[in-house]
Specification:
- The protein is mainly alpha-helical and 209 residues long.
- The protein has one domain (2-207).
- The chain has a three-stranded mixed β-sheet.
- The longest helix has 26 residues, at 44-69.
- The chain has seven helices and seven strands.
- The radius of gyration is 20 Å and the shape is globular.
- It has helices at 17-39, 44-69, 71-76, 90-111, 115-140, 159-165, 176-193; strands at 2-3, 6-10, 13-16, 154-156, 172-173, 198-200, 205-207.
Length: 209
């Protein structure tokens, strides 16, 4: 199966599949976070802004790290700065996730939100967002797997996959990103549909969601 890192062109502008698919996942995760916040009787507005803060913190951290790691090349070729948004790497994702968690903790403390309940509210949306992120990584060639002879192996043929993610061209590979996407999606569905029983000590009422 052939996958393509470029979703479509607008003139000379390339629209990367990773960015589009991830953006869709972020939007769905935000809407799901609002729903889980209401179910848990948490301020949906605070949860929405918390998600936005985490998103921008992750994006800023990953882009700044990318600039720092490639500073000498960017000084010699400033125009390359425009292509940084096309690049995705697991290291950048890990750095972004770490900064996002730190920003989330600061925001939660500032708004005095209950840490445990907030974590419960964000669990399913984060898993859903990661499922789409891994699907985007599959299209981009980021975090590619080992060589494979299976029928569902993926092959990258577009030069952008090698340029942006370092994926080998013309080689059948295990779609490990698809495996991760399915696992995150299953986890999200389990967290949404699973019935969690708690006791409201104030009125001794049992509730599920």
């Amino acid at each position: 199966m052939h996958v393509h890192p470029v979703l479509f062109h607008i003139g000379a502008v390339l629209i990367p599949a990773y960015g589009v698919v991830t953006a869709v996942g972020v939007l769905l995760a935000l809407f799901l976070a609002e729903r889980t916040a209401r179910v848990n009787r948490l301020n949906a507005g605070h949860v929405w802004y918390l998600c936005v803060v985490m998103l921008f913190a992750a994006l800023a951290a990953s882009r700044l790290l990318l600039v720092a790691l490639n500073w000498s090349e960017l000084r010699a070729h400033p125009a390359w700065m425009l292509s940084l948004a096309m690049i995705h790497h697991p290291l950048l994702g890990a750095a972004g996730a770490l900064v996002a968690v730190m920003a989330a903790i600061l925001f939660i403390r500032w708004k005095r939100m209950p840490l445990g309940t907030t974590a419960d509210v964000l669990a399913a949306p984060v898993a859903l967002g990661l499922a789409f992120e891994q699907l985007g990584a599959l299209l981009a060639g980021s975090g590619y797997g080992t060589e494979s002879a299976t029928r569902w192996a993926v092959t990258y043929t577009r030069p952008q996959a090698a340029l942006w993610s370092g994926a080998p061209l013309g080689v059948a590979l295990h779609p490990v990103q698809a495996y991760a996407a399915l696992a995150f999606l299953a986890l999200s569905i389990f967290l949404i549909s699973g019935c969690r029983i708690g006791v409201n000590r104030a009125n001794s009422r049992v509730f599920c969601y």
